Each structure stands twice: as structure tokens, then as C-alpha cells.
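Internal QA ticket QA-208
Title: Verify multi-chain structure generation after dependency bump
Assignee: T.L.

Test input:
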Amino acid sequence: MSGSTILFYLLGAMTLCCGLLAVTTRQIFRAAIYLLFSLIGIAGIYFWLQYEFIAAVQIVVYVGGIVVLIIFSIFLTQQAGEKLPKQKLGRKIFSALAVFCAFALTMLQVYRHEFSIAPSNTPVTVRDIGQKMLSTEQGGYALPFEIISILLLAAMVGCIVIALRSKPETK
Amino acid sequence: MTLEPGLYHILFISTALFFTGVYGFFTRRNLITMLMSIELILNSVNLNFIAFNKYVWPGQLDGLFFTVFIIAIAAAEAAVAIAIIINLYRSHQSIDVDNAEELKY
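Actual output:
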């Protein structure tokens, strides 16, 4: 067993364990921290797959952006040290059962299917990504790129409009 | 099945992560924790795209671009969701979904 294999299993175990803890812990701040480590684990898997650009984007956007946003909103909306209320046992059991059955079914289908795995070791460079992303030819991604830019702008304006404190007398 | 990590191992991780997120979405009743579950689900989808791009279509970059765009959309979605959550907290003093039954006022 090589070091790369051990590293992969460690990253996978970290991702899954932290993800599971993030959805089961009753302290919401800890849930955010577990989510953070789960996302870092996924970024590690991207590094392991040699997609360094995606790993960097994952760390910058998710770990640096979304988790910080979530932690700020926890500070704004929760009382410190308060635990989340306990859920009904029946709901937990049935959710776990449904999720486990769906998981088993999906994995069964996945293992039954033979994917045509093509061996390759061509690394993806950032130059390739940039040229493909801004190319206007067949198979280029210039139009989706522009659409995503418009979407981000619209989301930003929408956030400001939603979060503006409306004056009570103008309601 | 071999011990050497390959496509199936990554698919196992992403499927497990997806259903972990679904479990959280079913059981949680707090809007922020539900948002965290959605992030887990989106991440598992990204992992799937990257794995297929790496192992099944190694010469292409399409899976990678889908991942980039999903990350951008997830960031926009999280920002809008948190704006809505904070607005809800201002009007209801709670971010529990059971207390947020009406959509306006």
C-alpha cells in the first residue's frame, strides 16, 4: 500500500466523518466547523486527483467565503452556547432508514455499471482552463462564463435589496 | 474491487456525502443547518463531476467547468439564502422552519 493510497483513504475518511458530524451535532457552531473540515477534505481529494486549480477555487470560495458567511450568520442569529432542540426519534429513524436504502440502491447501481475508464496522466494546466473558458469557438465556455457573471451580479444586488432594513412607516 | 483508489472509491465518497446531506436536510429544522446540508450535497456533485472528468474523459475539461460554475452558483445561492435568513430572523426572532410558515409579513 503506497503513501498515495493511504492519503486518499485518510482524506475520504476525514470528509465523510466530518460531514456526518456536521449534520448530527447539536451545537450549531461546531456543525459549521465540521463542515469546514469536510470541505477541506474535498479540496484535498481534488489535490490528490491533480486538479490543483479546482482545489484552490474550492478552498478560496468555500472555506474562505461560504463557511465564513455561515459563521457570521450564526453569530447574528443564535444565542451563544444554546443547543439546537432535540429532534423526534421517529423522524431521525425514518430519515436514516430512507437515506440508507437510497444509498444502498445507488451504490448497487454504480457497482453494477461498467465505466469505460481511460488511463491518462495528462495534467490540466491553468493555461488550458483559461483558454477554454474564454474561447468563443465550438465547445468554448465564454457564454456560460458571462451568464455566471450576470448571475453573480444579480445575486449581489438581490442580497442588498433583501437585507436592507425597511423602515416601518413606509411599510 | 481493488484496494487501489479509483473511480468507484470516489463515487462511494460522493454518494455517501450526498446522502449525508440529504439526511441532514430531512432531520434539521434550523435554516442555517439546512443550508449546510445543501452545501454538502453540492460538494458531492462537484466531486462526481471531477471524478468522471478525470477517469472517463481525461482529455476534456467539461466536468471541470461544470464544477467551477456550480461553485459560483453555490456561492451566489449561499449569499442570497443568508440574506433571507437574516431578514427572517429580524421579523420572527427565530430561524426555525416551523416558525416560518407565512411567506409575506
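Spot checks passed. Chain A touches chain B through 81 residues (CB under 8 Å).
Status: verified.
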